[in-house]
Write a structure and sequence with these properties.
single chain, alpha/beta, TIM Barrel, Chorismate Mutase Domain, subunit A, 2 domains, eight-stranded parallel β-barrel, two-stranded antiparallel ribbon, elongated, binds phosphoenolpyruvate, binds manganese (II) ion
């Protein structure tokens, strides 16, 4: 047993002795029927890659009138699937009542969902229900990007004597542009790892991506960051799933995804390289932000183009260009940026801006069939 600054942890390698990392937890978002759970378990078992079978029984849904899970009766389906396949089983608990039902049934592992981690009252209630039982517990990050809240939930569970404890990174909720269902914000699990280096962290690409085509990249990124395992949703007929259909994949596709991952060995000097990873994620963040800002700037350029088209103005305005060059060079100098670099950068930016304006203006001022002189030549 290793002692971290404030967590008592049992290394993940000892949870299921003999299993090699990364640990893979898979199964449907929701248990739907006994046959579905059993068939999923059989096909996951057949991949040879899965260590634990998951299925949600009590489903926290964003909007009412969605399928809210089969509840307690699904526990028997999980146990039957375990009996047949030998896979340990896990489900999400959100209340002390769920914990009690799972413990009575003999579920092998529990996880706390993102909507529960946000609420310290709920986490404490679950922790209290777990007093004196050493069952493995995984704690998903809270919906909001709050590292302290995630750490607090892990501490509450650990303090009642749960030493097989791990975190699950499932991304963070946000409002706006949607590449990911939940933004990964890798810097947060990285900061967690930096605080508690011995805490095992899983990644849940399914809830980060919300769609199948991004899963492999996110899973690979998690492996590259040294996460100990993955939770990935799988379903025998993903498109017909009663919840989270667009992010689920078949057990066979899951097997393929896992086999396609590159498992690079740990770096020889983890201290130094963790730092490098943190810095690079920081750079990624800035680059992402810069690109987003450039895109926004281009949209404004297009509006300028529309204005100019309306008023029959040329796209290029030398006075404005000189003003841009002068002010930006001064701003760059004040921030110790090379003027040369900023000049090149501005030229590129300005060229692209003029190009976008011109496209808009040509669209607007397109000659009509009637006035098209070329037809008279
Ligand atoms: C789930 O795992 O199906 C789930 C509801 O996850 P999360 O708590 O991450 O939204
Ligand atoms: Mn789900």
């Amino acid at each position: 047993m290793s002692t971290d600054s404030s967590l008592q942890l049992q290394p993940i390698q000892t949870w299921w002795p003999g299993s090699t990392l990364p640990l893979l937890i898979s199964g449907p978002c929701s248990a739907e029927t006994e046959e579905q759970v059993m068939a999923t378990a059989r096909r996951l078992r057949a991949t040879g890659n899965v260590h634990v079978l998951r299925a949600g029984l009590w489903k926290p849904r964003t909007r009412p009138d969605s399928f809210e899970g089969v509840g307690e009766r699904g526990l028997q389906w999980l146990l039957a699937a375990r009996d047949e396949t030998g896979l340990p089983v896990t489900t999400e608990v959100a209340t002390a009542g769920h914990v009690e039902q799972c413990l009575r049934a003999g579920v092998d592992m529990l996880w706390i969902g993102a909507r529960t981690t946000v609420n310290p009252f709920s986490v404490q209630e679950i922790a209290d229900a777990l007093k004196g039982v050493n069952i493995p517990v995984l704690v998903k990050n809270p919906l909001n990007a709050d590292l302290q809240l995630w750490m607090g939930a892990l501490e509450r569970i650990n303090r009642v004597g749960i030493t097989r404890i791990a975190a699950i990174h499932r991304g963070f909720s946000f409002y706006g542009e949607k590449r990911y269902r939940n933004r990964p914000l890798w810097e947060i699990p990285i900061a967690l790892k930096a605080m508690w280096p011995n805490l095992p962290i899983f990644c849940d690409p399914s809830h980060i991506c919300g769609r199948r085509d991004l899963l492999t990249d996110v899973a690979q990124q998690a492996m590259d960051l040294g996460m100990c395992g993955l939770m990935l949703e799988s379903h025998i007929t993903p498109d017909q799933a009663w919840s989270d259909a667009s992010q689920q994949i078949t057990p066979e596709a899951l097997g393929q995804l896992i086999r396609s991952l590159q498992l690079r060995s740990a770096v020889p000097d983890p201290q130094k390289h963790t730092q490098l990873g943190i810095l690079r994620r920081e750079i990624d963040k800035y680059d992402e932000e810069i690109i987003r800002l450039i895109a926004q700037r281009m949209l404004v350029s297009e509006r300028v183009g529309e204005y100019k088209a309306e008023h029959y103005m040329q796209p290029f305005d030398v006075e404005r260009w000189n003003e841009i060059r002068e002010t930006r060079s001064r701003w760059a100098r004040d921030l110790d940026l090379s003027e040369d670099f900023i000049r090149h950068y501005l030229e590129q930016l300005h060229n692209e801006s003029i190009r976008r304006q011109t496209i808009v203006m040509n669209e607007r001022n397109k000659p009509t069939q009637h006035s098209d002189l070329s037809s008279h030549t």
